[in-house]
């Protein structure tokens, strides 16, 4: 008779504690996945918000570096390096904040160049070394080169969608990873509580 009313190890107090461990992570993952989908749906707005945030962070970092350059000077450190780098970061950050469309265009070109150069590096390295499973690296490199060429060919129109799309995909993938991790944590907690 007792066994009929025995508590499930996941239910009751232990169940609440287990839910408190994995539940908030799962909810956060769902919210991030939804935010990622929204960001993908409005990629231009996401691009503009991202570039404005980038400009603000760059300007803030530059100001902090200028301030730290005077502290470094007292200790005999590289004063001019810190000062000039801080001034450059501040000027570029303010330029991006004052003209986010131009900043977005420049950031798009920078990303296109990165995809192309990174892809070229992977293709050449995989062809020259022929290490185990080099074909995957070759395919990654070929796709990166193609992506870089497509972005360059569509510039400046690609500036409208590229940054927002990349940010949206990143947020969506982070949300999916959080959901998967929380479900794995739930599975592990259940197996620990069920085992004798």
From TrEMBL:
<feature type="transmembrane region" description="Helical">
    <location>
        <begin position="47"/>
        <end position="67"/>
    </location>
</feature>
<feature type="transmembrane region" description="Helical">
    <location>
        <begin position="21"/>
        <end position="41"/>
    </location>
</feature>
<dbReference type="GO" id="GO:0005886">
    <property type="term" value="C:plasma membrane"/>
</dbReference>
<feature type="transmembrane region" description="Helical">
    <location>
        <begin position="79"/>
        <end position="98"/>
    </location>
</feature>
<dbReference type="InterPro" id="IPR052712">
    <property type="entry name" value="Acid_resist_chaperone_HdeD"/>
</dbReference>
<feature type="transmembrane region" description="Helical">
    <location>
        <begin position="136"/>
        <end position="155"/>
    </location>
</feature>
<protein>
    <submittedName>
        <fullName>Uncharacterized membrane protein HdeD, DUF308 family</fullName>
    </submittedName>
</protein>
<dbReference type="Pfam" id="PF03729">
    <property type="entry name" value="DUF308"/>
</dbReference>
<feature type="transmembrane region" description="Helical">
    <location>
        <begin position="104"/>
        <end position="124"/>
    </location>
</feature>
<keyword id="KW-0812">Transmembrane</keyword>
<feature type="transmembrane region" description="Helical">
    <location>
        <begin position="161"/>
        <end position="181"/>
    </location>
</feature>
<dbReference type="InterPro" id="IPR005325">
    <property type="entry name" value="DUF308_memb"/>
</dbReference>
<keyword id="KW-1133">Transmembrane helix</keyword>
<keyword id="KW-0472">Membrane</keyword>
């Amino acid at each position: 008779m007792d066994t009929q009313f025995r508590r499930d190890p996941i239910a009751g107090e232990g169940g609440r504690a287990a839910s408190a461990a994995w539940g908030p992570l799962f909810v956060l993952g769902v919210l991030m996945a939804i935010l990622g989908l929204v960001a993908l749906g409005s990629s231009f707005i996401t691009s503009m918000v991202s570039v404005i945030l980038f400009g603000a962070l760059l300007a803030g970092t530059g100001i902090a570096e200028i301030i730290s350059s005077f502290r470094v000077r007292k200790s005999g450190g590289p004063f001019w390096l810190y000062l000039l780098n801080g001034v450059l970061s501040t000027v570029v950050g303010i330029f991006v904040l004052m003209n986010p469309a131009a900043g977005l265009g420049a950031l798009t070109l920078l990303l296109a160049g990165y995809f192309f150069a990174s892809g070229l590096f992977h293709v050449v390295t995989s062809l020259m070394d022929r290490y185990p499973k080099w074909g995957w690296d070759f395919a990654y490199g070929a796709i990166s080169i193609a992506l870089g060429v497509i972005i360059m060919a569509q510039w400046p129109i690609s500036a409208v969608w590229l940054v927002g799309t990349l940010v949206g995909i990143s947020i969506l993938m982070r949300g999916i990873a959080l959901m998967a991790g929380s479900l794995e944590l739930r599975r592990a907690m259940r197996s620990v509580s069920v085992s004798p």
